Amino acid sequence: MSCRSFARLLSIAMLASAALVGAGDVLAQYPGKPIKLIVGFPPGGGSDAAARLTAAALGEKLGQPVVVENKAGANTIVATQYVQGQPADGYTLLFVSASFAINPALYKLPYDPQKDFVPVTLVATVPLLLITPTGLPVKSVAELVALARSQPGKLTYASFGQGSAAHLAGEMFCAMTGTEILHVPFKGSGPAITELLGGRVSMMFPGIGSAMPLVKDNKLKGLAVSTAKRVTAAPEIPTVAEAGVPGFEIATWESIQVPAGTPPEVVSKLNAALKEVLARKDLREKLIALGLEPDGTKSPTETAQFVRAEMAKFGKLVKERNIKVE
Hints:
D-Maltodextrin-Binding Protein, domain 2; six-stranded mixed beta sheet; three-stranded parallel beta sheet; 18% strand
């Protein structure tokens, strides 16, 4: 081997060694200060509660506070754009729902969900619960479908916002049952459920956590859950598919994303920490009490695949139903 060839090999080896040391330094030093967890909804809702529980457990595991900041607006676009503009250093995380996968089909976004973000993991799935007022003369999904078919355009379904998972669930229900039910959007689940309690709208698909207490108090009827399987928090309630709409499956979910360019070592450390805390019995029980199905088992790559599949599913529904938002 010539002296020049040996020198080149030595140089390459030194660069590789330096890169490994640098990666080790990043992992050893992270986190060295508090972390921000940005939520796209106001305080007090299901997403906010789930984020705060997750943040507390994650902070305990990492040895640094994880502080929740709410940046509500535009179906989580405000929060998402904010996180996109932050340094890609692992100190600003995005706690975001299925709107992350829905919005690309509905809006001209100032960011690209797949190019501008790296997923860390899927925190939980959030089943939706089909509810109706106690005064509506139905006791099952089959009876609801029959009533809607007998009165085209007369029944209404509420949602917690245009383009929300509740909105798309209603559209999927109409498409798969051949019914015509009018969409009535509200700014949040609270106002929508208030109108449902008053009998001024006919049905809704809110997150199960916000509706189950009212169902258990017999103030609303819980007909079915939107997921493929029955949920842990209410195993007695059938799925929509079981109740007469085969193939019906839709849910919202909570994931953690970071800006593109975040060091892979940091992403891996966050993924490992979240996997550990989301496996804890105490945290799982608290999330289940909110109506969530805890996850935390997916790798960043698996989470990216999940989000892409959700984008394709929601995009197809938006196109087929010609869903528009103002």
